Amino acid sequence: MESKNNTKLNFTLKSENSSYDFTIIDNNKELTLKTEDLKEFPIKIYELKIEFEKLKQLDDNFSMFKTSERFIHAIKSCIQTEHYSISIDKDENAAIFLMKNDFFENGGAKIKIPEKELELKAQVEALTKIVSEMKKENKKKK
User: Fold this and answer.
1) Per-residue pLDDT tens for 105-120?
2) Cα 26 → chain centroid
3) How many Cβ atoms from other residues are within 10 Å of residue 16's Cβ?
4) How far apart are CA 108 and CA 65, in angstroms?
């Protein structure tokens, strides 16, 4: 059996209220979809680790993709052409990523990415990242 390479893609997604760091990782066995709200503090991380076959069961629209590579290519294309939306559902503690395209039933395919409980170490790392970004922005302004 042919083994594929691991894939990791990173994007910055924009919504009306915020911007998000969005990462997709395909490591042969499962997909990881991870997003961070870049403007919220304390930082919130949303993460879904799921086998591709199980993901296809969450939304029937995904059954059209034979492989995870094709699925990831579709996400990348939707993001590059700005045919997506991302929002936070506070009731469900989840980020909702919607791929918009006419070939999907109802014009879109939705992925619900649950909020990840952060350990103290992860919170400190996230805070360090924010402070570092703020320092860079501050240097640019000077």
Assistant:
1) 888 899 999 998 877 7
2) 12
3) 6
4) 14
CATH class of this structure's domain 7-141? mainly beta
* Token couple for 40: 């919220």
Using CA atoms, how far apart are residues 30 and 52, in angstroms rounded to an integer? 6
pLDDT digits (tens, 9 = 90+) for 37-87: 877 777 788 999 999 999 988 888 888 888 899 999 999 999 999 999 999
Element (H, E) at 52: helix 52-58
Q: Which residue has the tokens 């402070």?
A: 131
Residues 114-141 as b/e (b if ≥16 CB within 10 A, e otherwise) read ebbeeeeeeeeebeeebeeeeeeeeeee
pTM: 0.77
Q: Which of 21, 10, 35 lies closest to 113, judged by CA?
A: 35
The domain segmentation of the chain, as residue ranges, is 7-141
